[in-house]
Amino acid sequence: MAGTPGPGPRIVAIGECMLELQGQPFGTLQQGYGGDTLNTAVYLARCGARHGLRVDYATALGDDGLSTGLLQRWQAEGIATGLVRRLPGKLPGLYLIEVDAHGERRFHYWREQAAARAYFDTAEGDTPLEQQANSIDALYLSGISLAILPPAGRARLAALAQRLRARGAAVVFDNNYRPRLWADAATAQAAFSTFTALASTVLATLDDEQLLWGDPATPEGAANALARTLALPCGEVVVKRGAAPTLVRLQGQAPVEVPTVTVPKVVDTTAAGDSFAGAYLATRLAGGSATAAAAAGNQLASIVVQHRGAVIPPEAMPR
Ligand code: ADP
């Protein structure tokens, strides 16, 4: 049922969803939308529906028709939108996928002024997210959620995460690292360190960890990044490594390998990690073990990489 809160736990994903245009320059452009945390919210809602999971997306939009159109589409996916702020005069961010004659794609972004960046641009405690913090069981955010916020917004999000952890709620950090969204690597490293220390669960892509800390793209660089990730202080660490087995490390235990699903042909890896996160967290919030959750994540992601685009048709979801 669209946008109807389920009776189960409540998870909030926070971040930015942008408008998407795709096609040939001055040709016909197709309109869509996307963003890492929104993709995860869609997969959370789909995977968690049978357990009554309530999924919220927290972001800011404008008061324009495109923003209204986004809200309606999220609601149709079963995502609750009561934590979305509408900021008069602001607009959602936009990206354009330029497709050339050979089908190669280039991404262009207009997101510096996007409404989502201003989510916390109001007095402390004034956002619906802060006001409803006591009813939230889990908060999901990514390195991109951090990158788009100004330093003051990042500090507010850290304070909220701390508050949630203090009352036993989960804080899940996904290490999506996009260098061009950051002023420099040191700023990103500081923000990622703050949130990996605050998180109860870290979902890490090994490639992003290597890129963030400047580990060489060699087997030795990957081994360094892996050792550092597994040593993070949080109770639950999941390391995604493309087609290589996923590693799950719980507090005080040795890491466990969870195999990925072999696929005949990878079509598009967009949202592989986002879908993994959706299936993983839906399983965990329904009481499943971390290894069962990683298996569910690998299964869904293996389907997603065989489809073009971020969000697969509902009928392609695993049963
Ligand atoms: P991200 O999308 O976060 O960069 P990865 O590339 O590590 O992360 O992929 C996330 C998940 O997608 C993996 O853990 C795995 O489940 C799945 N996946 C990615 N590539 C493949 C592949 N070639 N074959 C099967 N599964 C894959």
Automatic annotation (TrEMBL):
Keywords per UniProt: ATP-binding, Carbohydrate metabolism, Kinase, Nucleotide-binding, Transferase
Q: Name one GO biological process term.
A: D-galacturonate catabolic process
Biological role stated in the UniProt entry: Catalyzes the phosphorylation of 2-keto-3-deoxygluconate (KDG) to produce 2-keto-3-deoxy-6-phosphogluconate (KDPG).
NAD recorded as keyword: no
The catalysed reaction is: 2-dehydro-3-deoxy-D-gluconate + ATP = 2-dehydro-3-deoxy-6-phospho-D-gluconate + ADP + H(+)
Annotated GO CC locations: cytosol
PANTHER family noted in UniProt: 2-DEHYDRO-3-DEOXYGLUCONOKINASE (PTHR43085:SF15), HEXOKINASE FAMILY MEMBER (PTHR43085)
InterPro entries to which the protein is assigned, alphabetical = Carboh/pur_kinase_PfkB_CS, PfkB_Carbo_kinase, PfkB_dom, Ribokinase-like
Q: Which domain of life is it from?
A: Bacteria
EC number of this enzyme? 2.7.1.45
**DNA-binding keyword on record:** no
Protein name, entry field: 2-dehydro-3-deoxygluconokinase
Where do the Carbohydrate kinase PfkB domain residues begin and end?
A: 10-314
Which Pfam families does the protein's record reference?
PfkB
Family stated for the protein in its record: Belongs to the carbohydrate kinase PfkB family.
Listed pathway(s): Carbohydrate acid metabolism; 2-dehydro-3-deoxy-D-gluconate degradation; D-glyceraldehyde 3-phosphate and pyruvate from 2-dehydro-3-deoxy-D-gluconate: step 1/2
Broadest EC class?
transferase
Under Gene Ontology molecular function, one entry of this record is: ATP binding
